[in-house]
Amino acid sequence: MSATMTRGGALTGTGILLGLALRRDRIKLPAWTLIIALFVPYFATVAARTNPTPEALRRTMDMMDVPMLRLFTGPSYGTGDLTVQRYLIAVYFVEFLLGAALMNILLIARHTRAEEQSGRAELIRAAVVGRHAPLTAALLLSVITTAVLAGLMTVTAIGAGLPAGSALLFAVATAATGLVFAGVTAVSVQLTEHARAAAGIAGGVLGVVWVIRGAGAVQDTEGGGLTWLSPLGWSQLTRVLADERWWPLGLSAALTAVLVTAAYALAARRDLGAGVVATRSGPASAPGWLRSPAALSLRLQRSSILWWSGSLVAGGLVFGALAGSMRDGLATDFLDAGPDVLSGYLSLMVVGMSFIVGIFAILAVTRLRTEEVRGRIAPLLTTPTSRWAWLGSSLLVTAAAAVTLLALSGLALGAGAALSLGDGGYVGELTGAVLARAPEILLLLAITLALYGFAPRAVAVAWAVLAYGGFVRFWATDLPAALKALSLFDHIPRMPIEGFTPTPLVTLTVLAAGVTLLGLYGFRRRDLDG
Amino acid sequence: MTPAIETSGLVKTFGPVRALDGLDLSVGSGEIHGFLGPNGAGKSTTIRILLGLMRATAGRATLLGGDPWSDATALHRRLAYVPGDVELWPNLTGGEAIDLLGRLRGGIDAGRRDELIAAFQLNPTKKGRTYSKGNRQKVALVAAFASDVELLILDEPTSGLDPLMEAVFQEIVAGLKDAGRTVLLSSHILAQVEKLADRVSIIRQGRIVQAGTLAELRHLTRTIVEAETAAPVTGLPALPGVHDATASGARVRFSVDAEHLDAAVKHLGAFGIRALTSHPPTLEELMLRHYGNERHYGNEGHYGDGAAA
Ligand SMILES: Nc1ncnc2c1ncn2[C@@H]1O[C@H](COP(=O)(O)OP(=O)(O)O)[C@@H](O)[C@H]1O
Ligand SMILES: [Mg+2]
């Protein structure tokens, strides 16, 4: 190390910074890589379980080979001679590419721009550390992590029954996309002053190339011309388990090289802490309506609510539209549908929407905790705003948002189903079915709030409540009734496959109200942190 | 006059840490009260209890005649608070934050708001996440000063401000005093409190070790005397209350306890005084003595309380 120190170049100190980064991420990165790699056997098992016979697998694959679904999964290869492994690659490859890309986006943003934004980079750069050392250390960290990911994925893919050569190609192709997005983020962090914005730009690029790849797959099952314009497409164009070829990954490598070069060039042209794009200014005074804790809560959650609404509506439309292909028959254990496949599918989607809105509810309360520890609610609570008023109005805004999200996703699901099935009645039916699940979300929200009120450090336990509900609902359907009853999500009838009964709705709503009061009481009597 | 703030025997523990250890603080109405102590002494903890953000483990606190915990909402109508570490909402502009806090406090004087923004040279159109520490502090200061309240609680409010802005701050606080407002001003920057405060309480390890007017506190401590005399001074170190005497030729320098100043100067007179300067101790010296020599002064810690009543 002392040799690099004395040379005094732009890369001085890279080794030390890399060591620091590895130490800081010693939990995070192994977790990311391991979890992504374990999805290989997981998806393989799900595919095998839900399609126990070759005929079932064939039928599912044929059903998936419609333009709408190819947008999500394609392009795909070698599905003529279908195996579980080929099915795995054809249907799930994109998810691994997204995982590797996200891991690298967050990694680079965290170790470059977030450090500058927090001011820690200033301390570091004032030491004997070269101008380009932080970026280089971050990129090396991403190379190391991505290599580990590729290694693990090769092993798990072999475990899932892929030949060693194909497993390696699959893993390296995934890694190639990961590194492209390390490059994309290395550029985006030069552009803005804020890590979140930089990650957002890179995420936006990921979304765009995802769509381009999908559009190519809509053109042609094996990828049309558009697929060649997307880095995600390049990884899939290696045709894993068909007539395999490595050379499309050369495109990924070349693009990565170009992006990294651009990142260094931009970094050399800007000041520490500054962005290439200047930050916009906002209004000098608050709009008239921003005058209550509820208004503030709405203002703070506004963009998040809009984002959730957009995603749920898009998801609802797509899942609803798939109902048409379901009608033609897909009897699987997974859907637990009994004789009525279509209703089973729709009920599953309804329950799924409710779970997703549950994620929103927990995140909203977690956000309150962040506000607290960051010291942003002390200024509010030292105005005449009481703790009741602050937490109560935040809760009301979140509850109203959650119910709105349920309504929107029900509408979208219903509209999609109505269009694909040619029956307008589904709009009302599915909107009602999703909205009827509001009490379970309100109870989940109330429980999260009570945790926040009494044991703020344990708010994350709410995730276990949601996860237990998902486990019981989707995997452990033959659990004893008493254990099932513990789940929040097994009481409200699954419409449309089950009929409406009001009792559980009333019970859950009353419970939610009681637990909410308890949570408010807890918050009123505890010390504020931060 | 009823005190604006009164605590007795206030205790706050965080697990094994005893942040406040029987704190007795008294702040009169209409006074600027300096709340001085080193980092970790318990200033912020005291303030958070006074604001009802935390509950004391033991002891009693009264704020504007009410209970800081149970009457929090009613009391907060009458006060404004500036924390030491101001955090703003990342995607609200400074101007929006000022308006919001002002409105939650029951209204904001738009004219005064704009004056203050100009005085502090604050750009209100920047997003919260882009402000430096000093600018975040300015946002909180503008919001506090623009609201019409009787009590201001300021916790190290100028730790991020430059000297020019510090002067602006002092001018505004001096104006508040003329308007009859009460200010609790916590700080570890002694010069700041020295200029503004009517009375001072010094906190160390969760206790008030001394309280009183600056004059009273100075009275407690030593004066530094430098003199030039016709004949070399002898016998000085033997005098009661004289410390650190040094002589070089006709010049002497020593410090002397307040009650022995008279005798020491008379002693000098016998040698023919040519030049004499004396200066009172600065608050630094005052605190240093406390923290450096606790045993000596510990018993007299509440001297100022009696004298000021
Ligand atoms: N929430 C807390 N948890 C644990 N210890 C705390 C907490 N808040 C303050 N302390 C401790 O209490 C003592 C007093 O802190 P504080 O009141 O912030 O001091 P000051 O404001 O005078 O610098 C310190 O030792 C600090 O570490
Ligand atoms: Mg403090």
Describe this structure in words.
The complex is a heterodimer of chains A (530) and B (309). With 530 residues, chain A is an all-alpha fold. Chain A has two domains: 10-269, no CATH class; 293-525, no CATH class. Chain A contains 23 helices and no strands. Chain B has 309 residues and is an alpha/beta fold. Chain B has two domains: 3-215, Rossmann fold; 222-280, Alpha-Beta Plaits, CATH 3.30.70. Chain B is elongated. Classes of the chains: A mainly alpha (530), B alpha/beta (309). The complex binds adenosine-5'-diphosphate and magnesium ion. The site of adenosine-5'-diphosphate has 11 residues of chain B, from strand 2 and helix 1.
What layout of secondary structure does this protein have?
The complex is a heterodimer of chains A (530) and B (309).
Chain A: H1 2-7, H2 14-24, H3 28-50, H4 54-64, H5 67-73, H6 84-111, H7 113-118, H8 120-126, H9 133-159, H10 164-191, H11 195-219, H12 231-236, H13 248-268, H14 293-321, H15 323-327, H16 341-373, H17 378-381, H18 387-421, H19 425-435, H20 438-454, H21 461-475, H22 481-485, H23 502-525
Helix pairs in contact in A: 2-9, 3-6, 3-9, 5-11, 6-9, 6-10, 6-11, 9-10, 10-11, 10-13, 14-16, 14-18, 16-18, 16-20, 16-21, 18-19, 18-20, 18-23, 20-21, 20-23
Chain B: E1 3-14, E2 17-28, E3 32-36, H1 43-50, E4 58-63, H2 72-76, E5 79-82, H3 94-104, H4 110-119, H5 133-145, E6 151-155, H6 163-178, E7 182-187, H7 190-196, E8 199-204, E9 207-213, H8 214-219, E10 222-229, E11 242-248, E12 251-257, H9 261-269, E13 273-279, H10 283-292, H11 294-298, H12 303-308
Parallel strand pairs in B: 3-7, 3-8, 5-6, 6-7
Antiparallel strand pairs in B: 1-2, 1-4, 8-9, 10-12, 10-13, 11-12
Bound molecules: adenosine-5'-diphosphate and magnesium ion.
